[in-house]
Amino acid sequence: MVKACIKCGEVKQATAEYFPKYKRGPRGACLICFRAQVNATRKRNSESGNARRREYLKENKETIHAQKKIYRDNNKKSISEHYKLWRKQNIQKVAENHRVYFMNNKDKTNISSHNRRAMLRELPHTLTETQWNDIKLFFGNSCAYCGEKNL
Predict the structure, then answer these.
(1) CA distance 59 to 111
(2) What is d(CA 125, CA 121) in angstroms, rounded to the nearest whole number?
(3) So what's the pLDDT on residue 129?
């Protein structure tokens, strides 16, 4: 059984491969013409849709946050697996993100390194960022032992 598209006039087999199964859009249009019309409609309505979406997000911030939290709590394992797979497939991106983070957050990374070394040596490791900044100010941003200014 064959059917002619009402948009382009091409004659194609009347199967789900060439014509949409559902009744939305122009009846009798082939999938190619149907998709072209859908894309044109989306493009035409994208600005008003984006404005409505932004407004909705602004008005329902707390509700959306609560829904996302519930979703994360209920799907921890699948989310974790998804991110593990993504990190494995994007090693270069992950390394670049880490490099940029460490360059922009030197104080935090110094504190983290200090706390980790202290933990491995079984020493107290409770230095906070504020305490670290106070120590640096006290010693004039130089080493307490040798006086070197590379902090």
Answers:
(1) 39
(2) 10
(3) 78
Q: What angle do CA 82, 71, 74 make, to 5 degrees?
A: 80
Compute and round to an integer the Cα radius of gyration of the chain: 29
> With a threshold of 0.70, does the pTM exceed it?
no
Residues 20, 40 contacting (CB under 8 angstroms): no
CB neighbour list of residue 17: distance below 8 Å, 6 or more residues apart: 31
Contact 114, 125 (CB under 8 A): yes
Helices (H), strands (E): how many in the chain? 6, 2
Phi, psi of 11 (to 5 degrees): -95, 125
Q: Does residue 111 sit in helix, strand or coil?
A: helix
Three-state DSSP state, 4: strand
Q: What is the pLDDT of residues 36-79, one digit of tens each?
A: 988 888 888 888 888 999 999 999 999 999 999 999 999 999 99
